[in-house]
# Entry
Amino acid sequence: MRSVVVMHLARLGSLNALEQTRSRRYWQRWLGHPLPSADTLGRVCAPVLPSDVRDLHGHVYSRLKRNKALEPPAHGLMAAAIDGHEFHATYRRCCPDCLKRTIHTAGGDRTQYYHRYVALQLIGRDFRVLLDAEPQRRGEDEVAAALRLLARVLEMYPRAFDVVLADALYADPRMFNYLLERGKDIIAVLKDDRRDLMRDAESLFEQAPPVQSRDARVSRESWDIEGFTSWPQVSQPVRVVRSIERQSIRRQLNKEIETVTSSWTWVTTLPKTRGVTQTVIALGRSRWDIENQGFNEMANRWHADHVYKHDPTAMLVFVLLAMICLTVFVSFYTRNLKPEARRNASMLHISRLILADLYQTTRAGPPRAPM
Ligand SMILES: [Zn+2]
# Structure
């Protein structure tokens, strides 16, 4: 496992690339024995239990909590963003857990295989942690996988968050009722597919003057009404918040100033007594973090969607390990390094230093059989 951690931290991206560093003394020093082959590394991850890796997440979480790294933002609410992410789409290989879909191509319909995980990221004041992930199974939708994920996270971390943040797909009575029964709130994007609720909210917003607010570059109009009963599948009335933002930006190309308008509507169980309008808007906007600083960071910079071995358990273990590596790395970078050290070294630079250390150590002679 320690060699896989180094592979993630150095952002090597494949077990074969890792294997090419096998003859370096680094491995003898770090592991106490030579690096196993790529095949062996792929093979040993399949029998590793995801629950063991999740226990490691629990250990890292406790340390972060003890060190006050996971304090809530000024509004006092800890959020857990959940979202689905697709890993690895292929026409060629499939395993018993692959999800399937038909793709219409010029050469006829083809079956594509892929894996999708729903992940949960805690969003604190100045630190985010990807805490757990759950694969979507065949024959179920993303919300079903999310409910399984939430059940486990609530058991392992009952007080880790107050409110779940999610996109429009999760504006689903199963999610809302599940969280309400467990004393948690949810803020989800509201779209037209919840027609009755949207229509009711729009007609009330038309009659009510918006609250105007403004900060340095953004002017905002917001509406916030609670007590909607036009979504009867949810066990209690819901609240709808809309924000229309106008921001002036200078275009790089012609230097002209342009006003960009964006409009967001959220449906939430959070009562006004626990979160004012600006809190709901701030939380709703921070949902983007799971995309921008969670999965995309893992996929683009940490090669987390690379399939190291096409085996459902090994893939989940690699994803969970990549999440821990990202947390530990970002925690080291933001909390251990002094600000002046951070000014001179990006996170990518630190990864390259780890990689350079791998390559620069002298050769250790022919590798022995892996242990
Ligand atoms: Zn598969």
Observations:
- The two ends are 12 Å apart (CA to CA).
